[in-house]
Amino acid sequence: MKLAFYGDSWFWTWFDTNQDVLTNPELSKLKGIEKDKLMNGYDVLTPLLNSMGHKVLNHCHPGNSFRETVQDICETSTKSDVHIVYVSTVIRHTELEKFLNKPWNQIKVQYTEIMYQELQKLGDFALKNQQKILLFAGQTTLKSKVLQNAFKPNDPRLKYLHLGAECIITALHNQFPPNKPIPLRAPGIFKLSTWSDKTNLDNYNAETITELHKQIKYFQSEPFKIWTWPDLGHLNFNGQIHFLNLLFDKIQQYK
Predict the structure, then answer these.
(1) N or C: which end of the chain has fewer CB within 10 A?
(2) What Å distances lie between residue 140 and 7, 77, 157, 191, CA to CA?
(3) Omega before 223 cis (within 30°)?
(4) pLDDT digit string (tens) for 49-63?
(5) CATH no. for residue 121?
(6) What's the domain range around 30?
(7) DSSP reduced 3-state for 7
(8) pLDDT tens digits, residue range 76-135?
(9) Residue 14: Cβ-neighbour burial (10 angstroms; 0-12, 13-18, 19+)
(10) What distance in Å separates the CA atoms of residue 10 and residue 12, rounded to the nearest whole number?
């Protein structure tokens, strides 16, 4: 199969620059990225998929927002057996602190409306090109109800646009439980949020701060670290290998 990957840094496994690990030579070719400012990134997926006889097309760019990823897909003429999309927050690279400095219910409504717009754009592309697209949420979480509510029932775009995982790590943990199976619920959409200025948090809505803290703390709990250590923000080698099992399960499910 020809597999085209789109999204952000979740395509790679990342290590601190001080660690003695293999470094992906393609890292230096990434657009707008200075290699000496990054951690070491290693491409686990391409050699594994190539060894199985599959062709890999990697269009991922570290730091991409979901909006940028949708734009990349719509502007790329690639045709594949399936587009695999790593979903990140749609407001990435915007003024995150400003967006979140409001009541929690208002944040949820505004964020969801923006996601609807981008999902509909992606659905338009998928239908027009009859291109199967699988969405896997990595840096954020994409609930199935958000994907479904972005379209009317029986919308033809949903014939080509499918959800592979609300949260990759949650899906891996629940489908391939290590040792004692402890089912995990999908974390919140801001599970990996960070702030450049933490001095003004007292000015935020109290409910919003409580909710954001809860989401971030939950994702930092031990069960998630099994799949992300040592980087804690991307899949490790073990996670990548299990992700391939999840990926082919979903390809088979939506063939």
Answers:
(1) C
(2) 12, 26, 23, 6
(3) no
(4) 999 999 999 999 999
(5) 3.40.50
(6) 2-253
(7) coil
(8) 988 999 999 999 999 987 778 889 989 999 999 999 999 999 999 999 999 999 999 999
(9) buried
(10) 5
